[in-house]
Specification:
The complex is a heterodimer of chains A (248) and B (203).
Chain A lengths: L5 H45 L5 H6 L2 H11 E7 L5 E5 L12 H10 L5 E6 L4 E8 L4 E8 L6 E8 L9 H4 L1 H5 L15 E3 L10 E3 L5 H30 L1
Parallel strand pairs in A: 7-8
Antiparallel strand pairs in A: 1-2, 1-3, 3-4, 4-5, 5-6
Helix pairs in contact in A: 1-3
Chain B lengths: L2 H8 L15 H6 L4 H25 L8 H22 L4 H7 L1 H4 L5 H9 L6 H31 L1 E2 L2 E2 L9 H4 L1 H18 L7
Antiparallel strand pairs in B: 1-2
Helix pairs in contact in B: 1-8, 3-4, 3-5, 3-7, 3-8, 4-5, 4-7, 7-8, 8-10
The chains are: A alpha+beta (248), B mainly alpha (203).
Chain lengths: 248, 203
């Protein structure tokens, strides 16, 4: 058979592509549930690390099922708000159908465009309130979870993650415990501009909302600072109106 | 085992090592060698991809239209890479490592070793030797990756497989963490390899 004829080439390549597409579609469908479960458990680990439910190492040593249980045991309520700070929905907290807003990219866009954002608020039984932040680092997205004390402005803990920041430099936002520990006890100035200040020599100002940027990771720090401020601003109305009022 | 088959397996690991002799796959060996764990997963992934892609292409070798053979090979390799990535993402234990390796798993498709072995070997040989040749090249690549990662994790973080080895007072060397150091280290390995194996020295 002439394997170089046009007809043969077209039929052959079509067949190869169809077979490959079928194999990939099949595996993708089969593996989707476990991939989603992994992603969900990862988000819960980061949130609970920020909320100081358990030490980060311990959370990462716990399997997915244990993480879901731990979250269900510790969460008090979870709901979503819009940019005006009004509650617009509730998120399920049951162990079998934990509700999360874990796709932060569209929310980040909605915040920037002043559109229809759905922002999650997670309140744990220890009174800690956890919110996400999301923005652009040097090479890809950076995001994190910030946990507040019941007073709604003092940071109880934080956890940051990134997609592809430089190992040893920008990746320190995730790898180095000292970086996230720096945020503990800081106070976010909701309603002010800027609400938070992550920059070079910021701590020298003595301000309660200042953390030093990471040396050698200027762009990552800058991106994270922007992420923090954009999201703190988006949550500002809610925190000023509800959380502080509840406590007083 | 006959001599030719033995040669197929041993050559890529020593005399024809894809990294130190053929100088292929340099990019990823600089990128994923900061930690041993990542390097090990990368080594296993590349080994599987080269092995299985060579096997499939060898099975198809008599039917592939020569004009579009590169495209067909590319489709096969891409499929293997996506499969590996999907499986890593689905495993509870491997999810975190896949996240850490991020784009580099997907970039296995651009690793010259994979296409190189298909073009140079699989298209002209039977399936079983092709599979072994692919696997052996993956092992040869992985071996160098692990050697580089060993030094980089030890000197750059003071740990091995995430466990602290050097005393807590050790100040990690930041240069070691950056890709240029991997290139320097790779140069040293190539030097040592050539000094050891006189056949590799150029006249």
């Amino acid at each position: 058979m002439n394997t170089n004829s046009n007809l043969y080439t077209v039929i052959y390549t079509t067949l190869v592509v169809v077979v490959v597409a079928a194999v990939l579609a099949f595996t993708a469908t089969k593996l989707k549930p476990s991939q989603d479960a992994n992603a969900k458990a990862e988000t819960l680990r980061q949130m609970m690390s920020a909320a100081q439910i358990k030490p980060t190492d311990e959370l990462y040593a716990t399997r997915n099922a244990g993480i879901l249980q731990l979250y269900a045991d510790n969460i008090r309520e979870a709901y979503t708000i819009n940019l005006d700070g009004q509650k617009v929905g509730t998120l399920s907290t049951g162990r079998s159908d934990i509700g999360l807003v874990d796709n932060l990219k569209p929310q980040n866009k909605a915040i920037k465009d002043g559109g229809d954002a759905t922002l999650p608020v997670y309140i744990f039984k220890n009174g800690v309130i956890v919110i996400p932040v999301y923005g652009a680092g040097l090479w890809g997205p950076v995001w994190g979870y910030i946990a507040f004390q019941p007073d709604g402005k003092t940071i109880a803990g934080a956890y940051f993650d990134h997609e592809s920041e430089t190992p040893g430099l920008g990746a320190k936002i995730k790898d180095e415990a000292w970086f996230r520990e720096k945020f503990e006890g800081k106070q976010v100035a909701f309603g002010e501009e800027p609400a938070f200040n992550l920059s070079k020599n910021a701590e020298a100002t003595g301000a309660a909302n200042a953390v030093d940027a990471i040396t050698g990771a200027t762009m990552t720090s800058k991106g994270l600072n922007e992420a923090l401020n954009i999201w703190f601003k988006a949550y500002g109305k809610h925190f000023q109106a509800n959380v502080n009022a509840e406590e007083e | 085992m006959d001599k030719k088959l033995k040669e197929t397996i041993l050559n890529p690991i020593l005399k024809g090592n894809p990294i130190t002799v053929l100088i292929l796959g340099i990019c990823s060996s600089l990128a994923v060698t900061v930690q041993l764990k990542g390097a090990l997963v990368m080594a296993i992934s590349v080994t599987l991809v080269t092995g299985l892609s060579s096997l499939v292409c060898s099975l198809l070798r008599n039917g592939i239209p020569m004009r579009v053979r590169i495209i067909v090979q590319l489709v096969v390799v891409a499929m293997m890479v996506i499969l590996v990535d999907q499986i890593l993402k689905a495993g509870e234990g491997t999810y975190a490592i896949d996240k850490q390796l991020s784009v580099y798993i997907g970039l296995i498709i651009t690793n010259c070793i994979v296409m190189g072995r298909i073009e140079a070997f699989a298209l002209g040989n039977k399936p079983i030797p092709s599979l072994l040749d692919g696997l052996a090249n993956g092992v040869g690549y992985g071996l160098i990756l692990i050697i580089v990662a060993f030094f980089r994790e030890l000197l750059g973080s003071g740990t091995l497989f995430g466990l602290r080895v050097l005393p807590a007072g050790y100040i990690p060397n930041n240069l070691v963490i950056l890709p240029p150091f991997a290139l320097i280290l790779l140069g040293c390995i190539i030097w040592a390899h050539r000094a050891f194996d006189k056949d590799l020295q150029e006249k």
